[in-house]
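Bug #2210: C-alpha cell dump truncated for Alpha/beta fold hydrolase?
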Amino acid sequence: MSSGFVKTKDGVDIFYKDWGPKDAQPIMFHHGWPLSSDDWDNQMLFFLSHGYRVVAHDRRGHGRSTQVDTGHDIDHYAADASAVAEHLDLRQSVHIGHSTGGGEVARYVAKFGEPQGRVAKAVLVSAIPPIMLKTERYPGGLPISVFDGLRKALADNRAQFFHDLPSGPFYGFNRDGAKVDQGVILNWWRQGMNGGAKAHYDGIKAFSETDQTDDLQAITVPTLVMHGDDDQIVPIAASAEISVKLLKNGTLKVYKGFSHGMLTVNADVINPDLLAFVKG
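Reproduced locally. Full output below:
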C-alpha cells in the first residue's frame, strides 16, 4: 500500500502515505498546524529520490483523517503517530517535525519511539518546544492574548484567517522585498480548509500551552534543531535556543533571515541539510 488508513485505539482513522522501498531506512514527517501531510511534498520527493522510504500522516482532524471532536492534544497526536509507526513497523527511522509537528515528534520519540527502539534520529524544524506560552518557567514566551487572538480569528472567519496567515508572517511574505508566492499561499489555504474547525481551534491550546521540557530531556538520540532567526510565528529565543540546551544530544542550526515556513520556501537549503544529518 502506498497510502491508507490506520485506526487508533480510540477509533480514529489516520490517513498516511508510505512511499519508496520498504527495506530502506524510513523517514517519517510530522506536519504543522493546521496543515496536512501534503506540506511535506517537496521533502518526500527529495528523500524518495535518494532511496529512502518516506512516510507522512494527517493529524487527527486535519487533512484526510477523521474530523473527530476530541483528542486534539499533544498526547493524542503522539499516540496517533505511534499507531502509524507500529502499523508500518518502522524501525531505525528518522522523525522530522515542523512547528506543532515538532512537538508531536518530541512527545512521540520520548514516550513511544525510543522505548520501543524504533528511532535513530529526530529533527525539530521551526518547532514549538519547549512551550510557546509565557510562563514563570519560561518568561520569554508569548502572552496568552496572542493565542486568544488566534482563536477569535479562527472562530470569526476561518477562511480569511487561513489566507491572511500564509500571506503574511508564516512565510515572511510581509517583509520588505519578499518574493510572494501565490501558489504557496493557496496550497496552505487548501490544506487548512480541508481540516476541521474544531481540531484547529483546540489545536491552538495544544501547540501553545503544552510544556515539553520533560520530553526534550528524555530524548537521547541525535536531534537536529533547525530554526530561522526571522521566525514570526515561533520566536527562536523562546524555542530552539532553549530546546537544544535541554536535549542530551542536540545540535542547533540557525538560518539567518529565514521564516517559519522555511521548509517550503527555502527547501533548496533545508533539504540538503536534512540529508546530511540523516546520512551523518
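Output looks complete on our side. The mean pLDDT is 98. Marking as cannot-reproduce; reopen if the truncation happens again.
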